[in-house]
Amino acid sequence: MERPLTEHLKQDGTALTLAEYRAAGGYEGLKKALAGMSAEAVVEQVKEANLRGRGGAGFPTGVKWSLVPRGEGAPHPKYLVANADEMEPGAFKDRLLLERNPHQLLEGMILAAFAIEADVAYIFLRGEYVDAARRLRVAIDEARDAGLLGRRIQGSDFSLELHLHISAGRYICGEETALINALEGKRATPRAKPPFPQISGAWGQPTVVNNVETLCNVPHIIRNSAAWYHGLGLEEESGTKLFGVSGRVRKPGVWELPMGTPIREIFEDCAAGMRDGYALRGFLPGGGSTDFLLPEHLDLPMTYESIGKAGSRMGTGTLIVLDDRTCPVGMVLNLERFFAQESCGWCTPCRDGLPWTRQLLEAIEDGSGRPEDLDTLEEHCRFMGPGKTFCALAPGAMEPLQSALKYFREDFKRHIREGCCPYRKAEA
After folding, report:
1. Does Magnesium show up as a keyword for this record (predicted)?
2. Which residues does residue 323 pair with via DSSP β-bridges, in sequence order?
3. pLDDT (tens digit, 9 = 90+) per residue, 236-267?
4. What topology does CATH give the domain 328-427?
5. Which of 2, 161, 233, 417 could lock onto 237 through a cystine, CB 3.0 to 4.6 A?
6. How far is it, in rounded angstroms, from Cα 186 to Cα 346?
7. How far is CA 417 from CA 201, 411, 412, 421, in A?
8. Which CATH code, of 3.20.20.140, 3.40.50.11540, 3.40.50.1000, 3.40.47.10, is assigned to 18-232?
9. How far apart are CA 54 and CA 217, in angstroms?
10. Distance from the Cα of residue 333 to its chain's centroid
């Protein structure tokens, strides 16, 4: 099974140098594009490959690129931004790529910039990723010294300046327009759309924002063809995906597998199942802002469509496991505390609704909840659902809550009925 994103990573955990990356075929995709491909041809190949955004939304990458104005009359400068602000609870896939193979990201960014005719590129990096920042700086210097960045890259007519931007850090910066505001030095709040960033983004200029994993796929597509990329996936999806598992499993971690891999294979074969003494009760399939699924869903393929039909989202593809000795109310409370803290405060439902949700859950978990609190929580799930807020932060925050009320409602009722958390009582 081919693993283009991770197959050349070194076992000692250090980053690939420029020489090591080139020895593994690195920058061959860029060489091919600069030697004989137009910007439009690169876009079309990514479209044909059906590369979908790996940051959570799954939007077709080539389609996003095709919306950027191009040609002689297009405005300049244009910008490309790699979203490396990985703050989704339970997600740690981009960190692996950033720390272990930074040149793969750089090549993907150069190719993407070539495709959209960008002049300047930024890596918007989460501030806590200190090792990634250090390794990226080394890789950027190596690439610049080798003529892979700057003026007339590899003797071509294409030029690109690339900068590393260390984020001050907020979850909302994962939303592309909030990220753009933060990059400009403004408050990290989402912008109204339209206009979309591809038309008017950073400093009012055409801008494309792509996730790290998404960009890392691009060199392999250009080097090997769209047909090759299609052949890597299962079901109807193309390519591979980094899937992660956290929680009380025997082997938490992250693995590169074909898109469409069954959840059971990720959970049992890769993560080796639950630790001794623990049983699987449920899981969030794509990070903290997705709906719970149950053991009965383990045989679903990890695709956007199949997980969506089951009532959740594939999101980042990083599973968070709920075991039978962890309180689901406490688990959801922990997530809602995070989301309430990370709200940018721009719109009323999110600014006021998330702290209210947190307070209700705290009361239930502490034993002072009332039966009517469950009705209020369900109202919050509706009032902060899709289309009711300025961006997707609050609707995402409601996903684990609404599904917990659906699947684990008896746990909520027990807290209220017994006046305490039964899981903490059992441990006492």
Report:
1. no
2. 280
3. 889 999 999 999 999 999 999 999 999 999 99
4. de novo design (two linked rop proteins) (1.20.1440)
5. 233
6. 13
7. 52, 10, 9, 10
8. 3.40.50.11540
9. 10
10. 22
